[in-house]
Design a protein that fits this description.
This protein has 271 residues and is α/β, with parallel strands linked by helices. The protein folds into three domains: 3-111, Cobalt-precorrin-4 Transmethylase, domain 1 (3-Layer(aba) Sandwich); 114-220, Methyltransferase, Cobalt-precorrin-4 Transmethylase, Domain 2 (2-Layer Sandwich), CATH 3.30.950; 224-268. 41% of the residues lie in helices and 20% in strands. Strand 6 (129-130), helix 6 and strand 7 (154-158) form a beta-alpha-beta unit. Helix 9 crosses helix 10. 32% of the residues are buried.
Amino acid sequence: MGTLFIVATPIGNLKDITFRAVEILNNVEIILSENTRISKILLKKYNITTRLISYNDHNHKKKINSIIDILKTSNIALITDAGTPGISDPGSQLVLEARKNGININAIPGASALSSAISISGLKSNKFSFIGFPPKSNTQRKEMFLKIIKVNPIIMFESPHRIINLIKSIDNIFEECNIILFKEITKIHESVYTGTPTKILKKISNPKGEYVLILQNGKENNQSNPQVLSEEIRKYIKQGLSGKDIVEKISISKELPKKMIYELYLKEKDY
C-alpha cells in the first residue's frame, strides 16, 4: 500500500519550503498539482523531475478513482499552487477517499497564508473563524458575516479581481468595523493595511496579487432597518421616482434583495 503525502509549498517566496518537502517531492512516484504550470517553477528551482499530474477543482471528480488505484501500489504527493493543500481546494476529498481505502496519509507541514497572516496581525483573540473564500452573493455574505462576527473575528481569502467588491460589501454591512488586509504575504511587494474599509479602499485602487482579510469586529449598519428604508422610499416617492427605479436604486446602494425593497414600497406607495 502506498502513501499519500500532503505537502505544503511556499505561499510566495520559493525559499520557504522545508528540506523534508523537497525530499518527499523527489522520492514519490507522482506529484498531484493544482496548476502544473505554476508547480513547474518550484520543481525546477529544486531540480525535482518527478512526474506531474493535474488535480484541481475542474477535474478531481474524474481523476479521483484512478488516483486511489495508483495509491494502492505507489506513493503520491499532493501540492497546491501555494501553501497547504486541503484549504480552499479539492485536497480534502482526496484525503477522505484515501482514508476510506485504508491508504496511509502523511502531512508534510510548511507555509500557510492563514497562520502567516495571524502571526503578524496583532490579533488579541486566540479564537477566530476561518471561512476560506467568502460567498460571492452580497446577501449570503451579509448573513454569514453578521452571524459569525458576534462570536469571533473572521479570516478569509480573496482574489485581486474581487477584493474591492468584498471590502465595499463589508462597508455596507457594518456601520463601524475594522479590518486588516494582507497583500502578497512573503513576496517582494508584501503589504499590510489596517483601518476602516473606506480608508483601505483608498490604498488599493489597482489590486494585484492574493489577499488575506481579517474582519476584527463590526457593528451592523442600521440602514437595512425596515423603518429607515421606508423613510428613504417615501423620500423617493415624493421626488416622483417610479417604483421600479426606487427598488433598483435602494437595492444597489444598500446591497439588499429587490423583493424586500419592493414589499416595503407597496406598503408606502398608498400612504
